[in-house]
Structure formats: structure tokens, C-alpha cells
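One chain is below:
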Amino acid sequence: MFLSDEGLSRHKNAIFRVALVLVVLVGLLVVVVNKICNFPANVTNIDTSGRYLLQNVPVGGILGLGGMAYLRVVDKEHPEKAYRTPLYSTQSLDMRLFEDDKSVGVYWLYFNKEEKTFEIAMPQWEWHWLNLFISNTPYVHLEN
């Protein structure tokens, strides 16, 4: 089966439109994720050693993420590197600071200082597809 010149032209136009829509959607996703990753924190705690900043970063108002946030941990000895958790519900958030020799964190979220990983102990925590882009640090969810 062969397409006429007119049919081939319509087929190429359809492919072009689909490709254009995909490029626009990917571009929009890149802009939104970049914006989310650079949001200011609404709460910042400094650990007892003074080395780590723990920041709660709300992301509400974008893509229906109301009531969601992530924890950003900044090592003041390497401030160019920020470690981000996956998204979590702000209803579960408790910014009470925790620190021992191995980890630093807040209630439910712990950052392993040596391995540079997160442990999430938050009950009823749910994975979100945007975690693929927002979280830049390996993590494990500890089941209750």
C-alpha cells in the first residue's frame, strides 16, 4: 500500500505536530522541575555540629502538588551540593532535629552522612512520579 503525495504530506504534518507537542511538554517539564529544585525553603534547621542545613522546601501550587514538599540537605563544607529527598506530604512533617554520629535529619527523614543516602520512615509515604526528577539522592523507604 502506497500513500499519495497528499497522504504522505498529511502523514508528515501529523508526525511533526506530535513531535512538536512532545518537545513542548519535555521543555515544560524541564522548566517546572528546575523551578521546583530551586524553590526557597520555608523552614531551615542547622544541625548541632553546624555542618548541615536541613531545609523543608514546599512545592505547592505547581502541577497540583499542594501540601507536598521535599527535604534539602546542604553540607556546608560542600555547599555546591544539595541532597534532595523524594516528595512527601507536609502533613507528616515534623522538623524536630535528630543527629548522631551516622546520620542527621528530622523526624521521619534521615540523611546518612557517610553514604550520602536518605532513609524515609514516614508512615503512609507514597511515591510520586516527579520523584524521578526531584530527588537526586538514593533513598530507601522503611516499612512500618
